[in-house]
Design brief:
This protein has one domain (about 1-110): Transcription Regulator spoIIAA. The longest helix has 16 residues, at about 20-35. The chain is an alpha/beta fold. The protein is built from four helices and five strands; from the N terminus they run ββαβαβαβα. About 45% of the residues lie in helices and about 35% in strands. The chain has helices at about 20-35, 55-70, 80-90, 105-110, and strands at about 1-10, 10-20, 40-55, 75-80, 100.
């Protein structure tokens, strides 16, 4: 897994590529922690290049989203590949968290 962090106005964007398996989930937590500690309140997770996400990856997204919610913020995801979208749907992850088709839509949605 690889990540790239950027900012669009006051919105933090984390683009992820590769597989979000248990080992990658640990690395993702290391990406989210400094953002959350620095007071981020709006986070877009761009998953255009994610080919697989497992329960550990979903868990890290959930923890980051809950942390943001406690701070009055929000996490949204965008650009899910069909297989990742299917996993989101099966896990019920699409229900509590907004999923946008593109990064631009996600930024506008925040």
């Amino acid at each position: 897994m690889q990540t790239e962090t950027s900012k669009v106005d006051s919105i933090d964007v984390v683009a992820i590529s590769g597989r979000l398996d248990p080992a990658a989930a640990i690395e993702l937590k290391k990406v989210f922690t400094p953002l959350l500690s620095a007071g981020a309140t709006k986070l877009v997770v761009d998953m255009a290049a994610v080919e697989y996400i497992g329960s550990a990856g979903l868990r890290e997204l959930f923890f980051a989203a809950k942390s943001l919610e406690r701070a009055g913020g929000k996490l949204v995801c965008c650009s899910l590949q069909p297989e990742v979208q299917r996993i989101f749907d099966i896990a019920g992850f699409s229900i509590p968290y907004q999923v946008f088709a593109t990064r631009d839509e996600a930024v506008k949605g925040l």
